[in-house]
Amino acid sequence: VDLIMPFLWGLGFLALVLTHTVVFIWCELKILAHVTDRLGPMTTGGFHGWLQPVADVMKLLNKEDVIPAGADRILFKAAPFIVFVPVFATLAALPLSDRIMARDFDPGVFYIMAFSGFSFVGMVVAGWSSNNKYSLLGALRAAGQLISYELPLGLAVAGVIMISGSLSLVRIVEAQTVPFLLIQPIGFLVFFIAMIAELGRTPFDLPMAESELVAGYFTEYSGMRWSLFFVGEYFALFTLSGVCAILFLGGWRGPFLPPPVWLLLKIYLLFTVLVMIRGTLPRVRPDQLMAFGWKVLVPATFVNLLLTAFFGVLVENFRLPLALTEFALLAVFLAATRRTAS
Amino acid sequence: MSGPLAAFYAVSAVMLTAALGVVLTRNVMHAVLLQLLVLVAVGGVYVLLQAEFVALVQILVYAGAVTTMLLFALMLTDARTSSRALDFAGRRPALLVAGAFGALLLGLTAGATWRTVPPGAPRKLAADIGRIIFTGYALPFELVSVILLAALVGAIVLATRE
Questions:
Q1: Is the pTM of this model over 0.95?
Q2: Touching check for A151 and chain B: CB below 8 Å?
């Protein structure tokens, strides 16, 4: 019995997130289409092409599995799993409400950070074993980008941990009588931007920039192995959006609707914003990516941490003064950058 | 055999096999990835010792960051032609040194008396570890920080000299 329950949880989460992956893909197709003034899929399944992702899956299952002649066969085959398994493992610590979770354990946030940072080893392996210059360049970019943006991501999480006093995701939501977004707006912005970079989505999609590198580290992959990368990306999107909603948007808190529905709504809200950003912003250059990460995001998280520590030690009820200072600083920063930009 | 003990043997078997592979393989890339497996298995041992936080640090720092750094360095250098680079002449002396060191460690661990913790002892949480580091072990912690900072500065100085 001890071994069956975790297995069932795993299957349940797999089914849940796979379902949402299919919905995500359809939403992304449709939103992107409308952003660029197109209709997107309209025929498959009748109503607004709702069966399109299912048709895509069928197509992928039937594709030939090609392994390049000069590839390192073992590593080439292992790479999609090295990417997918850690991403799937993070789901074990993602609670859907204060009751629906695989396990509430003390270092929950830390577990998710540790394993989501693990999958880029798989990307590097994929890029190297493909024996293709575009794959290798994509893998190099992925490694550099993910290492650089993991730092601000982790430091932004540290800010939340300082307010809530716990690494447990359940405890963090319990501490949010006000969503932490309103207390640490700087922390939220840094987390959100770093999250986009960790997911490798536009404007930070340099590791798989199709106009420069064909498809980056998975250029040589096809069929099922390619789908594992693809599904892994959406699983990571689901987990990181979930963590973002839990850390900054009050998690499953909300009136009227049941808690898991609230969390899913917040995940879909974040997802929609991500797709809108993908539809509107151009890709950044590698030097801009590094400069922005190290010279803007990392110092910003330090400001966030210092302010939180300062008010936390000095004032008994520190949330309001902290929030006011952060919003004021953010306004000053935005005003200053706008002036230099124009 | 109890479940945790069986798990310990399984994890140890994976770890030792992978560690042997690191030394025996001639492909640098394979060596790095086998080492990754060793590091993850060490994390597994920590989990079995009920030190989840330490296990996660192990995964985050060693399996994640350090391995990626190694892979990064391999790809920036010419890793493809260097599959024969591991065939260096100092293999025998290296084996001797490693063997002697291994024997020394084995002798020391065999002779040591270990502190045991009763099975029902409360787990150390991340907060407890933080408290210990910043009170009882504050000085060693600061010293380690200074050493790491010195290494960082040294690396930058070496890199910018060229």
A1: no
A2: no
